[in-house]
Amino acid sequence: ECYVQNTAREYAKIYAAEAEPLEGFGEVPEIIPIFLVHRPANNIPYATVEEELVGEFVKYSVKDGREVNFLRRDSEAGQKCCTFQHWVYEKTNGSLLVTDLQGVGMKLTDVGIATLTKGYKGFKGNCSVSFIEQFRVLHQCNKYCEMLGLKSLQSTHQKQRKPTSTKSKTLPNSTTVKKTVP
């Protein structure tokens, strides 16, 4: 738990360094640190400790991407969390995704990380690899994605799909293009 959250925190720090200087971007999400405490005299010798977050606790993203969350899409914090996910996805070439973003305002806790099956640079996440594909398909870019110059995931997803036969496609300028699949 500590390893996952603190790893995500390091990505959030790099994201903040890129996003904060941009005119109009404003405050960025912060993943709070979590610490492992050894208590040898206790029945449960290990515990985690983190800052107490006071206020309305909101889930800005979910682990599996199936739940529609209007606070994610309609709030500034939610949009910036989605942009953070997109930024991490792009920086790791689609190999890692910080997910399950939740907290109070811009302070986040209890996050998850999904990685490809082989992991990413020696790190294996605690969420299913399917979360990466679901994010790629479901993510809708917002103004913060545009401010950071992130590439649309929808066009990436469409480009990676291979046609199974020869097709004619009419483009908006009425030109016909034939694609041949080897």
UniProtKB/TrEMBL annotation:
Domain of life, per lineage: Eukaryota
Entries under Gene3D superfamilies matching the protein: MHCK/EF2 kinase
Keyword check for Repeat: yes
Domain Alpha-type protein kinase: 1-153
Gene Ontology cellular-component terms listed: basolateral plasma membrane
Enzyme Commission number(s) from the entry: 2.7.11.1
SUPFAM superfamilies from the UniProt entry: Protein kinase-like (PK-like)
Keywords per UniProt: Cell membrane, Disulfide bond, Immunoglobulin domain, Kinase, Membrane, Repeat, Serine/threonine-protein kinase, Transferase
Example of a GO MF term: ATP binding
Reactions it catalyzes: L-threonyl-[protein] + ATP = O-phospho-L-threonyl-[protein] + ADP + H(+); L-seryl-[protein] + ATP = O-phospho-L-seryl-[protein] + ADP + H(+)
Region (Disordered) residue spans: 156-182
Composition skew (Polar residues), residue ranges: 165-182
Location within or outside the cell: Basolateral cell membrane
One Pfam family of this chain: Alpha_kinase
Presence of keyword Aminoacyl-tRNA synthetase: no
PROSITE patterns linked: ALPHA_KINASE
Main subcellular location of this protein, as a coarse class: membrane
Protein function: Protein kinase that recognizes phosphorylation sites in which the surrounding peptides have an alpha-helical conformation. Regulates cardiac development and cardiomyocyte differentiation by negatively regulating Wnt/beta-catenin signaling.
UniProt family annotation: Belongs to the protein kinase superfamily. Alpha-type protein kinase family. ALPK subfamily.
Protein name per Swiss-Prot or TrEMBL: Alpha-protein kinase 2
Gene: Alpk2
